[in-house]
Amino acid sequence: MPATPAVPNGKRPTLADVASRAGVSTALVSIVMRGAKGAGEATRERVLQAAREIGYRPDARARLLRSHRSHLLGVQFGLQHPFHSDLVEGIYAAAEPAGYQIALSAVAAGRGEQRAVETLLDDRCEALILLGPQAPAARLAELAGQLPVVSVARRLRPSVPGLEVVRTADDEGARQAVAHLVALGHRDIAHIDGGRAPGAADRRRGYRTAMNRHGLGEYIRILPGGLTEEEGAEAARTLSATRPRPTAVLAFNDRCATGVLDLFLRSGVAVPGDISVVGFDDSHLARLAHIDLTTVGQDIARLAGLAVGRAVARLEGAEIPAGEQVITPRLVVRGTSAPPR
Amino acid sequence: MPATPAVPNGKRPTLADVASRAGVSTALVSIVMRGAKGAGEATRERVLQAAREIGYRPDARARLLRSHRSHLLGVQFGLQHPFHSDLVEGIYAAAEPAGYQIALSAVAAGRGEQRAVETLLDDRCEALILLGPQAPAARLAELAGQLPVVSVARRLRPSVPGLEVVRTADDEGARQAVAHLVALGHRDIAHIDGGRAPGAADRRRGYRTAMNRHGLGEYIRILPGGLTEEEGAEAARTLSATRPRPTAVLAFNDRCATGVLDLFLRSGVAVPGDISVVGFDDSHLARLAHIDLTTVGQDIARLAGLAVGRAVARLEGAEIPAGEQVITPRLVVRGTSAPPR
DNA sequence: ACGGAGTTCTAGAACGTTCTAGTTCCTTGA
DNA sequence: TCAAGGAACTAGAACGTTCTAGAACTCCGT
Questions:
Q1: B14-47 per-position pLDDT tens digit
Q2: Which of A112, B198, B234, B258 would staple B154 via disulfide (CB 3.0–4.6 Å)?
Q3: Helix B200-213 vs helix B170-184: angle between axes, to the nearest 10 degrees?
Q4: The HTH lacI-type domain covers which part of the protein (chains A, B) (predicted)?
Q5: Nucleotide closest in space to B66 (CA vs C1')
Q6: A212 and A282, same domain (yes or no)
Q7: What is the CATH number of the domain that holds B36?
Q8: A284-306 as b/e, with b when 16 or more CB fall inside 10 Å?
Q9: Based on the domain organization, do B158 and B232 belong to the same domain?
């Protein structure tokens, strides 16, 4: 039972408490706690022992207040996006070994991006990592003027000065999906798009150019969709009533594709027998055995690692040209795509 | 364009900067920024103007360091649980009007509860709200000895002293589900459980007692499940091969139920024609038009509000007896339940 | 015996706020 | 005219750290 309350008064133990117990100065305790050099082996042990005994934990806020560096990366993410959850998981994993902490700020109903970013700034984050930000480019530029900012999964055109961008080559992903379907023998391939969501424009463009390149321009059909299951199902409803019905469909993302799958199953359209379905993201969802979705894999760990990497590089003064890191996606073939019959 | 950099040197503007620009003391600026009384109307305007001009934002950490109160609630949640996302959303909404800020700390692969809680403590949170904590009761008790702790959606038995518990009456929920199915005419009702997940034991118990109470003890069948789609699908696979096949199934939660639904659809078992399916949580998932799941609704907004409320009450010194807040769930009947044929 | 070079340690000033205890100045009532 | 009371404002000490100097001590070669 190492951590009994053990505080003289009611307050939380501080450097001074440890110091007086170990019979040294607070400065020395600080040195020991940070693992800095400049303390004798014996004293170090004694201090650590004292700290352990009274259950001392350094006060992160006081620490940050004093030291010029905060080693804090602010991450803005959407609570309702599984893809963001996966990214955050990757960001945690990448930040720890680099010696940085993560401050999370969620975008949710009644809590917009503006607010989310403000709290991060108030917490003195050194850099911002924004997942799929929807804020206008001007706002991002303004932020980028204040501190390093990394935008993940959103293309910015023209590029905002000082802003780092880490994204998947969405157009290339769409091209790969189309190529896969064409190789299977499909010709009539529809696309359910993501409207104004980040990446949607690129995926739409990639689909269109791929179709044209394969000489299938006449089959191009883009249905308004979105990034939720409901919007996918809605588009699928339209699709299933269309004659002739396409033999394959590329959905904006996995959530959207799941909605499509579900509606098809319910209305007796066999997948992949009657129609092939391809998603985008390779989120946890797609990998589930009972969904088993063919999808365009975004390398989430890589995106996260790169986002952290760019932020850290900028912070550590590397004079890298602010720029775009584009990651090539990789098609993951699973059970929802097959030759048309 | 109100927020140009506008800082003399490269640093972020501070109270002193505003003070010298407005020609007053830092103390007065502090008063004005906090909206405290004790400043003249004219000066107040002048200070605010100066602050606006140089783009001043108070430093949250310095502020917290000085003022004894931090008005910070630490929230631990699971990144991969949609139900937690919904709760967090509700917590944000409840905390704001109460004058509290939220610090998020995620539990993810490679980042356990221990670590998540430690960072919250380091940030000097005043109270902890733990969503579905898995930590042993002893650990929770230890925490509760240090600061107010609210455990959401996990029953603790025997009750841990000093710990606040906010939860849904899981057993009652299961009873409602069974009653609904029985009223529809079902007798052979199976339950896919949640193993060691928070709430699972209570739901299991509720199912069992309800079955007995309706004189259906001989039909009791509990399949090992879990809280993910995969585990639900796995159990459904077993179930669909069982003869005689139950005419209804109560799944541990909505994710699990979704897995069940999907497997049934794929294997040609009609829902609700051949078998009725009931979930638990009423998360976003269940409400999706294409899933349309009958489910036991947890009042998420209420749970969140209560969690914040209890934490705040304890902080503001209300000497409420530490105790359990149990919320009665409400069955939401949708499209996956119908009379057996 | 002495100067230099490490080491190990300490005093005290930051960091950007809020808080306590005043001080100054204006009203106002007797 | 004067004290009392309040409003408007300020100086300076906190808060719990880290950082900059420098002090005290040891170890060496000369």
A1: 999 999 999 999 999 999 999 998 899 999 999 9
A2: B198
A3: 40
A4: 13-67
A5: D15
A6: yes
A7: 1.10.260.40
A8: bbbbbebbebbbbbbbbebbbbb
A9: no
**Dist. CA A308–CA A127, nearest whole Å:** 9
Instruction: Flag whether B9 is in a domain.
Output: no
Contact B108, B97 (CB under 8 A): no
pLDDT of residue B247 exceeding 90, the answer is: yes
Contact (CB, 8 A) for A47 and A29: yes
Integer Cα distance of B94 and A307 in angstroms: 32
Q: Give the residue nearest to nucleotide D6 (CA to C1').
A: B38
User: Residue A223 is which amino acid?
Assistant: L
A156-167 burial, b if ≥16 CB within 10 A, otherwise e? beeebebbbbbb
Q: How far apart are CA B238 and CA B212, in angstroms?
A: 24
* A289 compared with B66, residue with greater pLDDT: B66
pLDDT tens for residues A93-107?
999 999 999 999 999
**CB < 7 Å to strand C — which of 52-81 in chain A?**
62, 65-66
Name the packing angle between helices B41-54 and B26-34 (round to 10°): 90
Residues 52-111 of B with CB under 7 A from strand C: 56, 58-59, 62-63, 65-68
Task: Using DSSP, state whether A57 is helix, strand or coil.
Answer: coil
Structural domain contains residue B341: no
Q: What is the CA B38 to C1' C30 distance in angstroms? A: 29
- Amino acid identity of B291? I
- DSSP β-bridge partners for residue A131: A152
- The answer to whether position B140 is within a domain reads yes
Check residue A317 and give left, alpha or beta (phi > 0: left; psi -120 to 50: alpha).
left
Q: Which domain holds residue A30?
A: 15-58
pLDDT at B317 over 80: no
**Does any strand C atom come closer than 7 Å to the Cβ of A14?**
no
CATH of the domain at A255: 3.40.50.2300
Who has greater pLDDT, B326 or B156?
B326
Kindly report, residue by residue over A160-212, the tens digit of the pLDDT: 888 999 999 999 999 999 999 999 999 999 999 999 888 999 999 999 999 99
**Total of domains in chain A:** 3
Q: Are B44 and B97 contained in the same domain?
A: no
Q: Is residue B1 a part of any domain in this protein?
A: no
Token pair, residue B255, equals 């994710």
Between B145 and B302, the more confident residue is: B302
Could you say which of A85, A230, A289 has the minimum Cβ distance to residue B79? Answer: A85
Q: Are residues A118 and A84 in the same domain?
A: yes
User: Would the Cβ of A56 be found within 7 angstroms of any atom in strand D?
Assistant: yes
Amino acid at B84: H
Out of A283-292, B132-141, B148-157, which region has the weakest mean confidence (pLDDT)? Answer: A283-292
Which nucleotide across the nucleic acid strands is nearest to A16, CA versus C1'? D16
Give the separation between CA B102 and CA B92, rounded to whole angstroms: 7
B chain contacts of residue A230, beta-carbon cutoff 8 Å: 288-290
Q: State the greatest distance between any 2 C-alpha atoms of chain B, in Å, as a whole number.
A: 86
Residue A119 and residue A200 share a domain: no
Rounded-to-integer distance, Cα B62 and Cα A123, Å = 9
Same domain for A214 and A270, yes or no, is: yes
User: Phi then psi for B94, rounded to 5 degrees?
Assistant: -80, -30
Phi, psi of B10 (to 5 degrees): -85, -10
Domain stops at, among A34, A58, A82: A58
- Are A165 and A304 members of one domain? yes
Residue that terminates a domain, selected from B281, B298, B315 = B298
